[in-house]
Amino acid sequence: MPRHLSEAQRARAIAKLEENWSLTEVAAELNVSKSCIFYIKKRWQGEQRLQRTIRQGIGKVSTENEDNALVEFINHNPFETTVKAREETLFPGSLRTTQRRLKQCGFKNCVAAHKMFLTEEHKQRRVQFANEFLQGNEFWNNVMFSDEKTPTNRDQFWESIENAWEELVDSYDMRTLIPCQED
Description:
mainly alpha, DNA binding, Transposase_Tc1-like, RNaseH_sf, WH-like_DNA-bd_sf
């Protein structure tokens, strides 16, 4: 059985009822329940309309200004948690509603990437290594290059997880990286 009858099907049901068909016969003809035809008939007799009532549903718990305050807070404090953002902005919704509002505004929650930036000594060692093998084709023929390195040191990852709210941009954007201390 269809969930809702189209307006044309409802008009057909009314026409059949006006031809003195019974509710059961009309329901069987349209392959719907008898109660469905009963309510169509009741609406037609009372209000002379075939359209269904449009329902509004539950309203939003926050205003546009409250949503904007939440977004503004996250723009200025991208490493704050949703709980802290909700408390600071006095957002009236639940934690889940707060997360939904931020997602609707184009933010996503992620774990901030930790990247160790090169020291001067490290840079010099890399240049020295490259200069040593500058002419050695035999060495470079056995090297595979890949850009699939994640910028997270596994040993330090679980020790220093920090959340970050970021706009939908590249995960390795410099604004969302937290420098790590080299051991």
